[in-house]
Amino acid sequence: QLVESGGKLVQAGGSMRLSCAASGRIFGSYVVGWFRQAPGKEREFVAALSWDGRRRGIADSVKGRVTISRDNAENSVLLQMGNLDDEDTAVYYCAGREGSILYSSPGEYFTWGQGTLVTVSS
Fold this sequence. Notes:
4-stranded antiparallel sheet
């Protein structure tokens, strides 16, 4: 099970830090992806990270503003995004799957969190 946290109301130009915590130990190859879905839009890939933290992929649309990393102490994957604007307003989801490929398609992930809302005010 994956549980997101950290969503909040933030002013334009600010930053956010989201956490995706796994409820149990993860063994073997595993990938966690972050996605977001704005009202009326399709779910969009943001970033993905292998559970060992060695490989990462970031969507071109947010590259330069996003960092994805492991928090070993909290058994979680962190997503940090800066220089936010109103187009970043969305529900952010983390998702997981076994394996080593950093998929960007939501359909390739089988375990999803409930989502956390980020609202950017201008």
